Amino acid sequence: MRAPSTIYLYELAWILPSVAIPVGILAALVVTAFGAGIHLPADHGRVDPTKVAQTAPFDKPGLLEVGPGRYEVRLTGQIWSFTPNQVRIPAGSEVTFVATSRDVVHGFFIPRANVNVMLLPGQVARVTARFDQPGEYPYFCHEYCGIAHHVMWGKVIVDPAPEFPRARPPEGPSSHGDEDEGEGAEDKDK
Ligand code: CUA
Prior knowledge:
3-stranded mixed sheet; 2 domains; 2 helices; alpha+beta; disordered C terminus; single chain; elongated; 5-stranded mixed sheet; Immunoglobulin-like; binds dinuclear copper ion
């Protein structure tokens, strides 16, 4: 007959980690959620999935400047494309994507940025990312959505920030560089 104390130690070796691991996971959840502010993409409203193209803000998809260096992109996914399928912003911009699907379940994934959401029909997703490095940031549908799922993509083009021009030959054409003095001046042209 085995000594009871041997069994007790053996059980204890299992019981302690089985308590410690969930407690550790719970502590990590609390710290990331309340300390670091990390959370899952949440519900940011709904629109009638049959009338997405007629419902604000998705009736005017595209890029919107909402402040200095801050942009909003109203984006829809539909078989098998994104609208808009190209977004151009200066480096250092903070971009909030407000997105939904017009038909079936799609995904919106920017591998080079911290953007990864599902696009559910009529459910509004909202995700914000910073784009500091100039370059191209392709985005993809990463939820299988049918025969042409693999061609459903677009890209964010990040131009070098105008405030910090890169060293370049002076003959480089720049028609936009001198128009930043005032927004009021632009209104007279319309
Ligand atoms: Cu849309 Cu895959």
